[in-house]
Amino acid sequence: MTMKKTKPGRGQHPQARLMRAVVALTAAVTVALSLAACDPPQGPAGTVVDKDRTYWAATKHWTYKLTTRDKAGNEHKFKVSHSDYSACYRGSSYPHCTKVR
């Protein structure tokens, strides 16, 4: 009686499949946490003259922007975190409004 040799294929190495799944999940979680933990860089100081928020339905994500006017009268639009967007209102002084909570 001879034994038939089989090629290793799908389903024959469940530990290898499990390890690939664990590695992929770990990588996805690491990327998600690194993106969520990053706040945008601080924008230029000035008086808040406008606030804007945009909802991206495809990613189910909000982006928040403030527009400030500096002492020279120049306007600057930049991204901020949700907490900075909520803390600053039109007419407030940026970045001071982000520190008073």
Structure description:
The protein is α+β, with helices and mostly antiparallel strands and 101 residues long. The protein has a domain at 46-99: OB fold (Dihydrolipoamide Acetyltransferase, E2P) (Beta Barrel). It contains three helices and four strands, in the order αβββαβα. The chain has helices at 14-37, 82-87, 96-99, and strands spanning 46-56, 61-69, 75-80, 93-94. The chain has a four-stranded antiparallel beta sheet with strand order 3-2-1-4. β1 and β2 form a beta hairpin. The radius of gyration is 25 Å and the shape is rod-shaped.
Secondary-structure content class? alpha+beta
User: Mind summarizing the main beta sheet?
Assistant: 4 strands, antiparallel
Q: What is the straight-line distance between the termini?
A: 81 Å
How is the CATH topology of the domain at 46-99 named?
OB fold (Dihydrolipoamide Acetyltransferase, E2P)
- What is the CATH architecture descriptor of the domain at 46-99? Beta Barrel
Report the strand count. Answer: 4
Beta-strand residue fraction: 25-35%
Sheet with the most strands: spatial strand order: 3-2-1-4
Oligomer: single chain
Count of DSSP helices?
3
Provide the helix percentage: 25-40%
Run of helices and strands: HEEEHEH
Look at the structure and give the mean pLDDT.
83
CATH class of the domain at 46-99: Mainly Beta
**Low-confidence blocks of residues:** none
Radius of gyration: 25 Å
Shape: rod-shaped
